[in-house]
Amino acid sequence: MKVMIFNDKNNFEGSLSIINKDRPQGTRRFWQIEKYHGFFFRKVCGFMQPFADHVELVKTYVYTGKYNKKAMDAMKKYCGKDIRMMNDLIRNEEDLLQGISNTDIQLELKKRIETHVDSLKRLFEDIKSERINAIEKQEKHSKGQVAMTEYLNELPFTQLKTTPLKHTAGYIHQKGVDVLISTDLVNLAHCNAYDIAIVLGGDADLLESIKL
User: CB burial class (10 A; 0-12, 13-18, 19+) of residue 51?
Assistant: First the structure.
């Protein structure tokens, strides 16, 4: 019996994040394809007793969104605009504080204004930090994807399949991966490429393809 693995990498990592949420440092699980793909395949062999000797893993597909210059440039432009805006707003609040320090107004009113300004500055600083961290995070992930691609290319019977990542309002997200997995599931089944599909995902949209 021929087995194929269809792995939605992002959804699987989302599952790991849930597992790791309550785990102490040093006991958290990480994405190691050569370990967990083998684990699932052995599970299938266990279910197929006494025919386990006739079960073979013929192909593993790993699906993810691929970083691209268009999405990265759009994200950096959006975040950069927000960062500049926050800098302007912070300067305005600092100018306001400077202005009231040279003005003869009631002490109680001055304290209320200072408290209000400090709150706004913290809010603007948080938004600014969030945008800066978003850029740094995506740049790190982009470099990590290059290493991951090289790693997967060296694994036997394994293929990375990607769709271009998209940008929306300062965030990078994958689009079209579910459609790609669904298409492969149905097409390869009709081609008799596999008898058993191991689907590692977390999206109910795949259910109809699996039923078909």
Answer: exposed
DSSP class of residue 158?
E
Sign of the torsion angle spanned by Cα atoms 11, 38, 186, 48? negative
The CA distances from residue 68 to 11, 79, 161, in Å, are 20, 17, 15
Q: Cα separations (Å) of 14 from 44, 61, 111, 169, 200? A: 23, 18, 46, 21, 11
Q: Which two tokens stand for residue 212?
A: 């078909």
pLDDT, one tens digit per residue, over 39-96 is 888 888 888 888 778 889 999 999 999 999 999 999 999 999 999 999 999 999 999 8
Q: Could you read off the pLDDT of 137-162 as tens digits, one per residue?
A: 999 999 999 998 998 888 889 999 99
Residues in the chain: 212
CB 38 within 8 A of CB 60: no
Nearest alpha carbon to residue 123 among 89, 168, 80, 78: 89
Q: How far apart are CA 19 and CA 42, in angstroms?
A: 22
* Cα–chain center distance at 19: 16
Judge whether 124 and 86 are in contact, CB under 8 Å.
yes
Burial of 3 (0-12, 13-18, 19+ CB in 10 A): buried
Strand blocks (E) in the chain: 2-8, 56-66, 158-164, 166-168, 171-173, 196-200
